[in-house]
C-alpha cells in the first residue's frame, strides 16, 4: 500500500473522510471494488496518478461546475469534462505509458462475475501507450469524458490541477469560481491567438 499522502492536499477543506482517504490508497478498496492490477501489477509511478484521481474526485470541493446527473445503478452524479491542466494529463500519460490494461473505458464493460473487475473475454492486455496513443486519449476516454484535455497550464486559473502544494493554497478554488461565473464550457482565448486573427494592418496600431 502506498503512503496516505495525496488526499492530504484537501485536508483543510475536503468532501471526504479520513477513511475514504485511506481506502483510496488501497490496490482494491471498498470504494468501488476496482482492481488496478487487472492486467498484472500496476507500476507505482502510474498508480499514484490513479490514487490522486480518486482523491480529487472524492475529496475536492471545487468540482461543482462539472457535476452532472448520472443514470446508473451505482451513482446518481458524476463529473463531466473537467478541464485538466496540460501538465497533469501529460505526466499521467508519461508515467503510465508502460502500464498494462485491456480496456479504453474503465467505467463500463468489465466482467464483474468474480466480484471485482476482470477483463472481458476477447480483450487483450497491452501497454497503455497502445490503448491510449496520446495523453488526451487517456485523460478523456478512461473515465467516459470525466476529464477534458486542455492546453491550459498549471497556475493559469483556467484548469484543474490534480497535484499542487497545499502550502501555497489550493489553485482549484479560483478555477472553480471562474467556470461557475462564466459557464463550465468557457474557453478563454489566449492573446496570441487573438493577434493572429487581426488583419496585418491593425497590428501596426497596437
UniProtKB/TrEMBL annotation:
Record carries keyword Signal: yes
GO molecular function terms attached to this record: signaling receptor activity
GO CC terms of this entry: external side of plasma membrane
Boundaries of every Folate receptor-like domain copy: 7-161
Key words of the record: Disulfide bond, Signal
Pfam families: Folate_rec (PF03024)
Domain of life: Eukaryota
Family the UniProt entry places it in: Belongs to the folate receptor family.
Name this protein carries in UniProt: Folate receptor-like domain-containing protein
Amino acid at each position: 500500500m502506498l503512503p496516505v499522502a495525496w488526499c492530504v492536499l484537501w485536508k483543510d477543506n475536503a468532501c471526504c473522510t479520513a477513511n475514504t482517504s485511506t481506502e483510496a490508497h488501497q490496490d482494491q478498496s471498498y470504494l468501488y471494488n476496482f482492481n488496478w492490477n487487472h492486467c498484472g501489477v500496476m507500476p507505482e509511478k502510474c498508480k499514484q496518478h490513479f490514487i490522486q484521481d480518486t482523491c480529487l474526485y472524492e475529496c475536492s470541493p471545487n468540482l461543482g461546475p462539472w457535476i452532472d446527473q448520472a443514470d446508473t445503478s451505482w451513482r446518481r452524479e458524476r463529473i463531466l469534462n473537467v478541464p485538466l491542466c496540460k501538465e497533469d494529463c501529460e505526466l499521467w500519460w508519461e508515467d503510465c505509458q508502460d502500464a498494462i490494461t485491456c480496456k479504453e473505458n474503465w467505467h463500463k464493460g468489465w466482467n464483474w462475475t468474480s466480484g471485482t473487475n476482470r477483463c472481458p473475454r476477447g480483450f487483450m492486455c497491452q501497454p497503455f501507450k497502445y490503448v491510449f496513443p496520446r495523453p488526451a486519449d487517456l485523460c478523456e476516454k478512461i473515465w467516459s469524458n470525466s476529464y477534458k484535455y486542455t492546453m491550459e497550464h498549471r497556475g493559469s486559473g483556467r484548469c484543474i490541477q490534480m497535484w499542487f502544494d497545499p502550502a501555497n493554497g489550493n489553485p482549484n478554488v479560483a478555477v472553480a469560481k471562474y467556470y461557475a461565473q462564466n459557464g463550465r464550457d468557457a474557453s478563454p482565448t489566449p492573446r496570441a491567438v487573438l493577434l493572429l486573427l487581426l488583419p496585418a494592418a491593425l497590428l501596426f496600431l497596437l
